[in-house]
């Protein structure tokens, strides 16, 4: 096939891709269904033309009709692109909240579909049992692009959509790994896998694919950061990532190539925004959206061209077997939706899924290009028996046709019948009121513009009359919805407030006031605010706001590593992230008060606006308290962060001044570019956040301890080497009754509660506890519990007694502490200071 025919074929394919979108919109079909229909029609036309004309066709036309489409085209050229882009576009920080249901659904859904389909085929098919299970693995792959497009078109809860999107992506990776396992059983001349391969080899293959994807993505990201001055080079390198990952995993390491590509995309998705510039990351996402659109469309068209070839030998009994596969796969999916999901919801691991959404998920489980590609891989494999190749091709293709043309063409009708295409009554009422307020603002701004530009009054009056009619209609519709209760108005107001907070984060990110990594975290928190408000109103909003201020699972892991293993880098990194987020959040929350007065008050009234002001003020106070606690823990670092913020602000204002000078014509474009480039070095230096050194912070905390104020520099250095920093969260038990007394604690920040002899006492910053058990040499008689986030300095028994014998200030502090708690006999046992050695 010469180069001219290849170019002609590629051009024709892209024409088909371009025309499929308007055709799908016109026929109100999913885009993938339209692509499959066009591809199938082209395939049927090519097969008919070849059968009728035969050798009378010119050689060029015959070569074009016999386009060599192989499974390798799908698996090596197109599938990595599609899977990589889907992984690159996921909201991973939100998906971490639901990793349990996503993983369970992805793995168990594949296993269930494989088992049900394979078991249902065994009594009717002439194939071996393992070949039947191979069919089950092939048809268990859902199409990620179809699922994503369906749920983004629904007004489904975002959390439910995330679970379904994540499940559809990981579903493919799991199914392809299972497909490779069963394929070896039906191939002649290949040793069959053992139980060890099933239970050990397959998980190792998946795990090694995950590790490979992570390593390749980290290496690529490092290189992309080094190429920051060449954005086109960054984009070119990103295109190489999925293909290099797939080949290294699949060909060199024998790992799962698809799993490797998925984890490479997820790794780049997680780490990329924090290490690449905002512009470069935005360009990368846009380029990959386009590449994935082409790859997905080409997969569907090319796979659909094969439908006549794969179904050429179909018989009536084969159609019955296709029906068996359809019923078995449907029952397996129903088991997931009506048994497993409710069980996960009852265990509070998954959101409650309403009946209409379950039906939509069931009917929206479209199969497509991946299923056809795997079926093609079997039909091309000469080691697979001929009868197995024929039947696998027919069953997989027939099932795919049913999901695309049976489910896909009726999906929108089903969604309308289920009522999922309609806005909720609250959303309808809100949209009417928002439109009325927006049109009022437009009328005012148009009137000012007409006056400012001196336009014709007659024309302006005529246009104003026409616009007034539209405004009156909008106001009338808004008045019809005026019976919304105050509770619902509060919910709608909080939703608007959370949406505005998200917009402010994006604006600050574009202005480079917030680093990309922190911007993503703050966007995630804003999304949680919106979802919490939709689910629980004011209570849900408050709960989500407090969660944003709290410390998650990773922080608890970091604290454990620091407290137990003295590994502090992760805790330092997370603390620095938290510092930056709280500083930016404090500024954004102040700006939201103006939004309440200018927008929300006009829609929902003064009482709702006043309540929102109070809720916002409470959030500001909580953020300020969290910042104060960090300032107490890390005073030097807090000063550096504030200096950094002021410098970033000055740099942004300087850039804005240069832009204004350019717009006013006072400087030329060349000078403007030179001035902007001169600020590049300062921008890069500011993007490098100051390092949080916990050892330095420990020294600062020691100097702030009143009990250690009498130490000289040499003693302070000695204590710093011997003292350990411990971080505690509210509710952590620091000392239990009956435990042996081995450590004394100094409170650097936070507060603890001491329960002793039915009495409760609270201790705060600068105080100590735990010394009484050491002095009395008895087991602990009190229980000490952290009531806030605390930073504690701890010293073991031997070092504490040695220090106590040398420092009079510490001895005095211990005596005051024990006397205040009514234990003078313990104070009497404080060892007297030893005489200083003669030098």
What does this structure look like?
The chain folds into 6 domains: 3-65, no CATH class; 71-418, Na+/H+ antiporter like domain (Na+/H+ antiporter like fold, Up-down Bundle); 424-484; 487-542 and 552-633, no CATH class; 648-687; 695-828, Jelly Rolls (Sandwich), CATH 2.60.120.10. The chain contains 35 helices and 8 strands. 38% of the residues are buried. The N and C termini lie far apart (97 Å). The chain has 839 residues and is mainly alpha-helical. The model is unreliable at 823-830 and 832-839 (pLDDT under 50). Strands 1-8-3-6 form a 4-stranded antiparallel β-sheet. Strands 2-7-4-5 form a 4-stranded antiparallel β-sheet, with no helix packed on it.
Quick summary:
The protein is mainly α. The protein has 35 helices and 8 strands. The strands form 2 sheets. Strands 1-8-3-6 form a 4-stranded antiparallel beta sheet.
How far the N terminus sits from the C terminus, by CA atoms, comes to 97 Å
From the 3D structure, determine the CATH topology of the largest domain. Answer: Na+/H+ antiporter like fold
Shape: globular
By DSSP (H or I, 4+ residues per run), the number of helices equals 35
- Could you report the average pLDDT, rounded to the nearest whole number? 77
Largest sheet: 4 strands, antiparallel
Structural category is mainly alpha
